[in-house]
Amino acid sequence: xxxxxxLRVHPADRHEAEPWLRLxxxxxxxxxxxxxxxxxxxxxERVLAAHRAELQRVVAADIAAQITAGGNADGTQQALEWLAxxxxxxxxxxxxxxxxxxxQTADPxxxxxxxxxxxxxxxxxxAVVGSRNATSQxxxxxxxxxxxxxxxxxxxxxxxxxGIDAAAHRGGLAGMASSLAVVGTGLDVVYPARNRLLAHExxxxxxxxxxxxxxxxxLGANFPxxxxxxxxxxxxxxVVEAALxxxxxxxxxxxxxxxxEVFALPGSIHSPLAKGCHALIKQGAKLVESAADILEELQxxxxxxxxxxxxxxxxxxxxxxxxxxxxxxxxxxxxxRCGMGTDIVSALLLKLELQGLIANLPGGQYxxxx
Length: 370
Fold this sequence. Notes:
Layout: H1 18-24, H2 31-41, H3 44-49, H4 52-55, H5 61-68, H6 73-82, E1 88-92, H7 100-103, E2 111-116, E3 125-129, H8 136-151, E4 155-158, H9 164-174, E5 179-182, H10 196-205, E6 207-210, H11 222-232, E7 236-239, H12 248-257, E8 261-264, H13 272-282, E9 286-287, H14 291-297, H15 315-324, E10 329-330, H16 331-338, H17 342-354, E11 358-361, E12 365-368
C-alpha cells in the first residue's frame, strides 16, 4: 500500500493543477519516484523550488535537471487549455475527491485526467471486463448484468475496449449509477475509434478517466497499467468471457492482489471464451449466475427487475423458451422439439428476441440469454 498520508496534508494549494502537471509530464519521472519526491518535499511547488543537489538525493541527475528547469512547460500549457472546458478536470492524490479505493493500492497514479462526472470517482463501483471477441451471449450477459448492478447502485467501470467492455458500459449507462471508462490513452484520443460514440455518451452521462497525458496514443504497454486503475477503483471485478490468455485475467489478478472480490460467469465447457472464467473459478473466484450473487457478496440490495418472467409470456412463447435452453440451437431442431411449424416458430422467436430473452446467432441459430 502506498504511504500517501503526508501527501494529503502538505500541498500548498491542492486545487492548483499547474505544478502537478509540470512534474507528471517530465519524461522518465515515474509514479514511485514522484511520490518519493512529494514525501520528501511535501508539495509539487516545493519540489519545483528545490535545488538540484537536494533533488538528486531522490532522483537521477537528468530528472533533477529537468525539475530545476521548471518541468514540462509545453505539455502543461496544453493541459491547462484542455481544462478550460468545464467538462474536464484534473484530480491529484492530494485532493479529497481522488478515488479513495485507488489511493489505498500499491501504485496510485499521482494525477488523473477526468472528463465527465467527477463525482463518480468515489461512488461504489464494480469492474466488468471480458473478451474483445465476445459471443452474442457474452455481450448480452455483460449488458444485462451491468444494467442490473448499476440500478442497484454500482457504477460500472471498464476499459472502453470492443466486446464485453463496450457492452458493460452500455448497461451501466442504462442503469441508475452510470458507467466510467478508464482508458489507456490521453483523453483527447479515442481508442478504439469504433467506440467514439460510446465515448461521447460516457463523457456526457458518465465519465472517462486516464492517468496518461493528453496526446498519448494507444501503446500496448499502457493497457496493463490501465487495468490496475480499473480494478483499483472498484469493489470487485466481474469477468464475463475470457480466453486463457485474455488481458481480462490480468485485471482479475490485479483485483485479487488489491484485495478486491473477483467474480466469474461460467460458460460452456466447449467454449474457448469460458476457459478463462473457469480457470478463475478454480483459483477461488466466486461463480455467479445472476447479479444478485454479486450484490449478496458485496452486501447490497438488488433493484426490481423489469425483465418479463416466463409466467408473463403467452403459452407459445413460454413453450418455445423452455425448449430452447442456453446452448445454440437451429430452427429445424426447435420446430421438432416444439411440434410447431417453421412460420409459427419464426414468429415466436422474433417476439422473444424483441423482449431481450434470446439472441439470434450467426448461422441461423438461436440461444436463450436470460
